[in-house]
Specification:
- The chain is of the alpha+beta class.
- The protein folds into two domains: 117 residues, Immunoglobulin-like, CATH 2.60.40.10; 261 residues, Alpha/alpha barrel (Glycosyltransferase), CATH 1.50.10.
- The chain has seven helices and 17 strands.
- Strands 4, 5, 7, 8 and 9 form a five-stranded antiparallel β-sheet that branches. The protein has a four-stranded antiparallel β-sheet with strand order 1-2-3-6, with no helix packed on it.
Length: 391
Amino acid sequence: MIRKIIASIILLVSSSTLVFSHAIIDSTADSWIRINLLGYKPSSVKIAVYVSKLQKSIPVFTLLDAATGKTVFKSNPGQPFGSYGPFIQTYRLNFSLVTKPGRYILKAGNATSPQFTIGEDVYKDAADFCLRYMRQQRTGFNPFLNDSCHTRDGYTLYGPMPDSTHIDVVGGWHDASDYLQYASTSANATYHLLMAYRDFPHAFSDGKLANGLDGKNGVADVLDEAKWGLDWLLKMHPQRDWMFNQIADDRDHMGMRIPKEDTFYGRGIERPVYFLSGLPQQRGKFMNNTKGAASTPAKFSSAFSLASQLFDDSAYKDLLFEKASSAYLIAKESPGNTQTASVRSPYIYEEDNWVDDMELACAIGYTAYKKYFRKVGYLDFLNPDKKLECA
C-alpha cells in the first residue's frame, strides 16, 4: 500500500535514488547490488538487482544475517537479463521466501549490498517524509528557511492586459531545485498529493501547521501541502478567461543566490508571469512549440475537481467547482498542447500531448461533481448552465 502512495508522491521528485541504490561508491568495483533502501515487509515480494560492467554470470547469491554473518538463504538467481544502461549484465535476486524480521546483507559474485531491514514498519512515516521536499520548495513563506521569498511576483507578459501589469501570484513551489514555477507541473503535483490522500488517508499524519512549521492543525499534512498548491493555482487562474502558465524563465540559471535575492529580471525582486495564450511564445531568440492551451487548464480542472471531494469547507468547494468549470472551458476552447517559454537557451517543458489531460479532467470532474451536486442540490454536473460538459 505505502509503495503506491510513494509512487504517487515521487512524481513530484526524483525516484531513482530513493528505492534502488548502492550505499558506497567504490571506484575499483565492477559489480553492485541495488536494494530497496527503505527495506521490505515480511509478506511482500523482495527483489534486489545485481548489475555488472563485466560479462559475469552468478550461479548463486546468498542472504546473510547482518549481526552474525551467517547465511540464512541461498538461491540460484535464474536467467540473466543482459545489458541495462551502463551495465553489461544484470540479474534479479528474488529472496521473497525470507519472512523473518531482521537486518540483512546480500552477496552475489564479488558484490555486497548495504545492510537493509525486513520488518513490518519499514514504510512507517515514508509518505510524510516525502512531503519534506515539497515544503523545502515553497515560495512566499518558506518553512524550511523560516523566511519569505518571491513576495513581489509578478509582472505580466503575453496577456490581454498591458505587459508589465502587476498581478499577485505569490505562492506555490519552486520547480526542482531552481526557482522557476510552472503551472503544469504544479497542477500535476497537486493532483497527485490529493490522489495519494484520497486512496490512502490513514498513511498520513498531522505534524505540521498549514504554513509548514511544526504543530498540529487537525488536517493531514498532505492536505496542507495540496492546499498550498491549490491556493497558488487559484491565483494563476484569477478569472474566467485568464490563466497564467509560468513564473520566471531560464534567466534563473545565471547564478547562485538565496531565493529572496532573486533579482535576475531587471525589476528588483519582481519576476515575469507568462500568460497562457495558447500561442507560441518567444523571449530572446527561442520560440516554443505551443499549439493550443488545453494541456495546462485541463490539469487545473482535474486538481480542482478532486480537491472538491476532500475539503469540507463549503465556500471552498464552491470556489473549486467554479474554477474547475472555467479551467475546463479554457481547455475546451483552445485544444492543443502548451509548452513553457525560455530566454537564454531552449530550456522548456516540451509538452506534446493534451488529450490525456482532457480525459482526466472529464473523468475526475464527473466523479467529483455528481456526488457534490447531490449534496448542494444540483442534479448533474453536465448541466449546460455549469458549462463543464465533456462532449
